[in-house]
Amino acid sequence: MRRNRQVVAEDEAQIDLTPMLDVVFIMLIFFIVTATFIKEAGVEVNRPEASTAQPKDNVNILVAINATNEIWMDKRRIDERAVRANIERLHAENPKGAVVIQADNKSNTETVAAVLDAAREAGVYDVSLATDKK
């Protein structure tokens, strides 16, 4: 009889960690789901400077134009004719998102204008040009 009481007492003294692990996993899932991930265009550009530069919220479509007028989206080089289709696809994923064009200092104005036109033809009118603060 005395031996049974010792076994029962040892069982009751152990701490059950299962609820704590459940809470930790739920918090981990919550932070992963709610985290915002920075999208990159896929190429480094030297942006022009502007004294009126302001941070832009709710950006989900980045289009980069490098010094040789190559257009990059989602870390891949795309043809000028495919810009509109790619913007339409990304805009369908997040309709409230905006387009930011990251043009290099040495890029051609004609290429920037073509990307701007493609964004507007895709139905996105919130288009900005990325600059560095002076």
Automatic annotation (TrEMBL):
Keywords noted in UniProt: Cell membrane, Membrane, Protein transport, Transmembrane, Transmembrane helix, Transport
InterPro entries: ExbD
Bilayer topology annotation: Single-pass membrane protein; Single-pass type II membrane protein
Coiled coil feature spans: none
Transport in keyword set: yes
GO molecular function terms listed in the Swiss-Prot or TrEMBL record: transmembrane transporter activity
Main location as per UniProt: membrane
GO cellular component, one term: plasma membrane
Transmembrane segments: 20-38
Keyword hit for Ribonucleoprotein: no
Compartment(s): Cell membrane
BP GO terms, sorted: protein transport
Pfam families from the UniProt entry: ExbD
Protein family membership: Belongs to the ExbD/TolR family.
Descriptive protein name: Outer membrane transport energization protein ExbD
Native source species: Chromatocurvus halotolerans
